[in-house]
Specification:
It is a single chain. With 234 residues, the protein is mainly alpha-helical. The chain has eight helices and five strands. The strands form two sheets. A three-stranded mixed sheet has the order 4-3-5, covered by helices on one side. Strands 1-2 form a two-stranded antiparallel ribbon. Strand 3 and strand 4 form a beta hairpin. The chain is globular and about 45 Å long.
Length: 234
C-alpha cells in the first residue's frame, strides 16, 4: 500500500507539473472547484492523514484539529496560490506520509483513529483512504486520466470496500460482476445484475462516470461516496 501511494502521488504530481497557473485555474470535473481547489483539497487531506498517523503512533493529538469553516478558508487560500507551490506542497505531504508509514511501529497499525466525519477505523486504513483520494481526484483534475487508467489492484480493493458497505446497507443491486477482475459480489435479493469492467463499475459507484460499459439498462442512483466502511470499527 505504501508503494501504491508513492506511485499514485507521482502520477498526480507529473500531471500537475505540466500545468501553468492559467490551466490550474480552469474548472475541474467537480462542480464549483478549479483544478487548484482539487490540489488544495489533496494537500489538506495529506495534513489530515499525517495528523491521524501521529495520533496512532503517539496516542495524543499533535495539534488541535481545524474546524470546517477554517478548512474552507484555507482551501480558498490554497486554490489562489501558484501551481508550482501547490505541486511542492502535495509532494511534501505525500513524501512525509510515506516516511512516517515506513517507520510506524507494527503494533500501532491497529490503533483506532477517528476521521473528521466522526467514524473510526484502524490506522492501516489511513493508507487506503489516501490511495482512494489520490486516484479519485486525479480523475477530477480532468487532465486525461480516466477510470481505465486506474491500477487493477486499486480497483479490486475499492470495489470490495464499496460493495461490502452497500450490501450491508441494502443498496438495490442484486449482483455485481467485474468481468476483467473475475470477481463478483452478491448484494441483495432485489435490483439489477450489473456486469462490466471493474473500473467502469467503480467509476459509476463513485459518481465519476455514467453507466456506459455496464450491462444493466436501468441503474439505481449512485450512492454518496466515499462511505464509511461497513461493518465499521465503532
Amino acid at each position: 500500500m505504501i508503494e501504491a501511494i508513492r506511485s499514485s502521488s507521482a502520477r498526480v504530481i507529473r500531471a500537475l507539473s505540466a500545468m501553468d497557473d492559467r490551466e490550474a485555474r480552469q474548472p475541474s470535473a467537480l462542480p464549483g472547484w478549479t483544478r487548484a481547489h482539487v490540489v488544495g483539497h489533496l494537500i489538506q487531506s495529506g495534513d489530515a492523514y499525517l495528523w491521524l498517523m501521529a495520533v496512532a503512533r503517539d496516542g495524543v493529538e499533535p495539534w488541535p484539529r481545524a474546524e470546517r469553516a477554517a478548512m474552507a478558508r484555507e482551501l480558498e487560500d490554497l486554490a489562489a496560490r501558484p501551481v508550482a507551490e501547490l505541486v511542492d506542497g502535495l509532494a511534501d505531504r505525500m513524501d512525509r506520509l510515506v516516511r512516517v508509514s515506513e517507520v510506524m511501529p507494527v503494533e500501532r497499525w491497529d490503533t483506532l483513529v477517528q476521521a473528521l466525519a466522526g467514524w473510526r477505523h484502524p490506522a492501516w486504513y489511513i493508507l487506503r483512504r489516501c490511495l482512494r483520494e489520490l486516484e479519485t481526484h486525479h480523475l477530477d483534475l480532468d487532465v486525461g486520466y480516466r477510470t481505465d487508467d486506474w491500477p487493477a489492484p486499486y480497483v479490486a480493493w475499492a470495489l470490495e470496500d464499496t460493495l461490502s458497505t452497500l450490501a450491508a446497507r441494502g443498496f438495490p443491486l442484486a449482483r455485481v460482476e467485474a468481468v476483467d477482475l473475475e470477481r463478483s459480489w452478491a448484494l441483495s435479493d432485489a435490483g439489477p445484475v450489473v456486469s462490466g469492467p471493474g473500473h467502469a463499475v467503480l467509476g459509476w459507484l463513485s459518481g465519476r462516470r455514467g453507466g456506459a460499459g455496464l450491462s444493466a439498462q436501468e441503474l439505481p442512483a449512485a450512492p454518496a461516496w466515499p462511505m464509511p466502511p461497513t461493518p465499521g470499527w465503532g
